[in-house]
Amino acid sequence: MIYAEDLTPDADAVIKLFAATFAASEGEAEGALIGDLVTNLLRDRAAAGTQVFTATDNGTLVAAVLFSPLPYSEDPRRVVLLSPMAVTTQRHGEGIGQALITHALATLRDQGAEVAITYGSPVFYGKTGFEPLTEDTAPAPQPLSFPHRWIGQSLTDAPLTPLKGTPSCVAALNDPQFW
Length: 179
Known about the structure:
By secondary structure, the protein is an alpha+beta fold. The chain has helices at residues 11-26, 28-43, 45-48, 96-110, 122-126; strands at 2-5, 51-57, 60-69, 79-87, 115-119, 131-132, 150-154. The protein contains 5 helices and 7 strands.
């Protein structure tokens, strides 16, 4: 298995992975929605600063995760938002997703990221250090449908203290349907 920051991802393969994975778990409409989201994130990634991390096995893409900037208007810390994440359904349960996230977080930490946040399963992401957040600690860029899924972690030795100011996510994620 090769875990890497993919500086020149095969956009079609990444989009197909997300669309198929979400369609299998959440239905065709969700697969199409997330496929469109990933299309937009990849299209705008150079300008927006979105980073793509992939896991490949014998040359086949098996997992991908995207991280985008999530700056807070009055906070100097570099915050990144993990969204979305996918592992091909045939490889679920093998630890590939956690290994990819661990690799990505280490790379981002080395690049100066100080906080990572996501909006997802506390059980799954908790295996890589994410813990529940309140909006007092980290306001979300949109109203949250499931506040218990707002989770994050410090990527430094310091504990995560409240982030200051208003957050702003990349344009592709700045849509209430994703929150």
